[in-house]
Amino acid sequence: MVNVATSRPTRADYYRVLADNLPPQALVVTSLGNASYLWAKVHEAPENFYFEDAMGLALPLSLGLAIAQPNRPVIVVEGDGGLLMHMGALVTVGAVNPANLTVLIVQNGVHAASGGQALTNAALDLAQLARASGIASSENIDKPQSLADKLRGRAARNGAECLVLATEPDLDVVRPPASFDPLLSKHRLQAAIGAPRYVHAVFGGGKLEGA
């Protein structure tokens, strides 16, 4: 009798593939929890932006980055729970459709960052949902090698790409190499892309640094 493995790959399996196949000058945005903690452990870099305590907002930020940095690939890792919290963000990506944006959705069927609560519809076909939202290049992925093939075979695209990664839940919190400081993460990314800092004023009237 032959035993057939039925378990899905882990987030780490996909992250190792992503780290090995990052396009030159890529910017990577990761959502809260292990999405950011593990990526920092696998591939820490100034070109990363790690979200903390802002569930569902990785996709809007990455869309803004893709628009502002049209000559750089932008890759965002969002969870299925975060996506369902802010479904309108996916529709907006489909409307704008920047060709330099790749959306990776980790589909593990749970809200992993808040304790593993099951999604209301864990079996939803998120690739089909992305296509219906206007992202024609959308596909369900169930093997890390398939992700590697997609990343290595990058050709000229007419719009954004959405890859839904079938993944085992990872409820044990990964310890990142250093504590995250959201302000530091923002300033590091601004420096990496050459963006001026915004200088806040107590009573409004802030300005860009050097302006």
UniProtKB/TrEMBL annotation:
Organism: Bradyrhizobium erythrophlei
Protein name according to UniProt: Thiamine pyrophosphate enzyme, C-terminal TPP binding domain
Single GO MF descriptor: carboxy-lyase activity
Thiamine pyrophosphate enzyme TPP-binding domain sequence ranges: 52-155
Gene Ontology biological process terms, A to Z: small molecule metabolic process
Keyword field: Decarboxylase, Lyase, Thiamine pyrophosphate
Listed PANTHER family: SULFOPYRUVATE DECARBOXYLASE, SULFOPYRUVATE DECARBOXYLASE SUBUNIT ALPHA
The keyword Lyase appears for this protein: yes
Superkingdom of this protein's organism: Bacteria
Acetylation as UniProt keyword: no
